[in-house]
């Protein structure tokens, strides 16, 4: 093939470039970059452990309940028995190099899944055989759809008595609206031992538990009845595939028989249909009981695409290096480590890179990924995944290239190909995403305050939060100048709890997480007018000031002169500098209202008269103005205004009534309920922030984890007297 290709290229340097390109494609054809996705506790990490063990990467089987798995290496992961951070591992299987990303299954860590999907070419979706398609399964499936990723389904826990393979397949059709093709079917012995029927080869597969499932036995079917039944399923598989693959359909039509279709033809057709996302192969087993894992890895090699089969968009870089940053972790010895998916070219140690935001970086070391263990390598080829040390300013989502010119030329080539070809809107979105600087980060749905154990730990806490933010883009950190709190925003209560635990275990800072202090505002109940005269001797100097001020409900200007025919001449005679001093003192009193110390808004201060004795200090005048406004606020009284949040909730139709009932108990105003798709409703609502503490968790409980929401501030609203009383008691710490 190489000789024929080179023979058609006239120029020597062009031949060399083509030769290098063919060699890179040959190398990348032996790579499989895959992610493993599932609902929490479906068995992703256990499946990954078996893959590493059977591939010879580990010498013993790790178990989640024992806290000794390779990919769950964080202290919090081993204590809780859940995956929190995505982990990358590399192993070989039957001549292929598999880069696998084990992702979290909890909804609070959806951002980890989103980041990982930028680096893979296909995914394994693990189902719990006893539960079928669950809430988070739908979420990760939608994410895979967004990235147009081919996928396999592995139905796990099929050894359990309550496992139902047929129901899982039906769930795939109904809940995920996909086309599953079953390559295996389960069977159990009298003792309840799980084994598998292979539809393509018509074999019975049984695993030996004496060697922890390392070996399995392939045997012909025992009875003619079984053989006929499985042959019918094989014919159904061929018939189903021929509807999606023209080459297989031609063979079936020409031979006029399903029996003459070879296993190789079926597997080739299945690979084409899977890579084109027309079908989803379904396999089964039990990771905990060491059954079916080798056949799952064979399916990864056989049916999921190599990098060169999916990433035609990256050809705009030609032979130049390009890589996408999809994750950053911090190691105690090595510092910040950047996980990069190589899109084109070769990455070498000591290479100088340019990120899409313009900064230059130098790769000091390159490692092969194996969770928190690292093996140093000198270079990495196209399509592979690498861990880079030495990148100091690079963040998640950055596109790395070898030079500014390379990046600009790639953009020009991409624009040219887009103009010459007919691209869909989805293709253009993928093109734009390649050069996007900022990753698409979901809005925070849970907020809390964070405080260091002492003032001396404030700087250390801020440094730790900056590192955690670099690792986890979904963590939001902000400072509320009104309440004086450092506010954390995230995806849920578990997310915040993990941040607190990591601050203690990794940075030795025992921070306190507390509820948000609601930033209420106040406004006057009615206009008020008063005169305040203050006379005092300070350090032998007589200070005297007399002011007449009025408070009115007005949103236009905060401070102005109340000119009337009687006082216009007097006010015009006031020096501009004195007016500025009076304005500054009066407005300072509006920063803290008399009820809960909230800012006084929608209020205007009118100056009617000001008599200032000669020699009176500006600070004394400012203090007098502030005291006069405070007196007015006490006279007229204030009403509380509470912050209102605008929520958009997307939930299945069957859970809408329960969500609306819960919102009504939270003093929410339902703005609209409209259909979104065939099965969901969009609920638009305004609700007080004080009633939304822990609402994200409550929403998941009500909707069984199927609803999602976005939330953002939308102003303030007045409170009734009973709600005001509760708010005042909370602000005073009495509730």
From TrEMBL:
<dbReference type="InterPro" id="IPR000795">
    <property type="entry name" value="T_Tr_GTP-bd_dom"/>
</dbReference>
<dbReference type="InterPro" id="IPR020568">
    <property type="entry name" value="Ribosomal_Su5_D2-typ_SF"/>
</dbReference>
<keyword id="KW-0809">Transit peptide</keyword>
<feature type="domain" description="Tr-type G">
    <location>
        <begin position="29"/>
        <end position="308"/>
    </location>
</feature>
<dbReference type="InterPro" id="IPR009022">
    <property type="entry name" value="EFG_III"/>
</dbReference>
<dbReference type="InterPro" id="IPR014721">
    <property type="entry name" value="Ribsml_uS5_D2-typ_fold_subgr"/>
</dbReference>
<dbReference type="Pfam" id="PF00009">
    <property type="entry name" value="GTP_EFTU"/>
</dbReference>
<dbReference type="InterPro" id="IPR031157">
    <property type="entry name" value="G_TR_CS"/>
</dbReference>
<dbReference type="InterPro" id="IPR000640">
    <property type="entry name" value="EFG_V-like"/>
</dbReference>
<dbReference type="InterPro" id="IPR009000">
    <property type="entry name" value="Transl_B-barrel_sf"/>
</dbReference>
<dbReference type="GO" id="GO:0032543">
    <property type="term" value="P:mitochondrial translation"/>
</dbReference>
<protein>
    <recommendedName>
        <fullName>Elongation factor G2</fullName>
    </recommendedName>
</protein>
<dbReference type="GO" id="GO:0005759">
    <property type="term" value="C:mitochondrial matrix"/>
</dbReference>
<dbReference type="GO" id="GO:0032790">
    <property type="term" value="P:ribosome disassembly"/>
</dbReference>
<dbReference type="InterPro" id="IPR027417">
    <property type="entry name" value="P-loop_NTPase"/>
</dbReference>
<dbReference type="Pfam" id="PF00679">
    <property type="entry name" value="EFG_C"/>
</dbReference>
<dbReference type="InterPro" id="IPR005225">
    <property type="entry name" value="Small_GTP-bd"/>
</dbReference>
<keyword id="KW-0547">Nucleotide-binding</keyword>
<dbReference type="GO" id="GO:0005525">
    <property type="term" value="F:GTP binding"/>
</dbReference>
<dbReference type="InterPro" id="IPR030851">
    <property type="entry name" value="EFG2"/>
</dbReference>
<keyword id="KW-0342">GTP-binding</keyword>
<dbReference type="Pfam" id="PF14492">
    <property type="entry name" value="EFG_III"/>
</dbReference>
<dbReference type="InterPro" id="IPR035647">
    <property type="entry name" value="EFG_III/V"/>
</dbReference>
<dbReference type="Pfam" id="PF22042">
    <property type="entry name" value="EF-G_D2"/>
</dbReference>
<keyword id="KW-0496">Mitochondrion</keyword>
<dbReference type="GO" id="GO:0003924">
    <property type="term" value="F:GTPase activity"/>
</dbReference>
<feature type="coiled-coil region">
    <location>
        <begin position="216"/>
        <end position="247"/>
    </location>
</feature>
<dbReference type="InterPro" id="IPR005517">
    <property type="entry name" value="Transl_elong_EFG/EF2_IV"/>
</dbReference>
<keyword id="KW-0648">Protein biosynthesis</keyword>
<dbReference type="InterPro" id="IPR041095">
    <property type="entry name" value="EFG_II"/>
</dbReference>
<dbReference type="InterPro" id="IPR053905">
    <property type="entry name" value="EF-G-like_DII"/>
</dbReference>
<keyword id="KW-0175">Coiled coil</keyword>
<dbReference type="InterPro" id="IPR035649">
    <property type="entry name" value="EFG_V"/>
</dbReference>
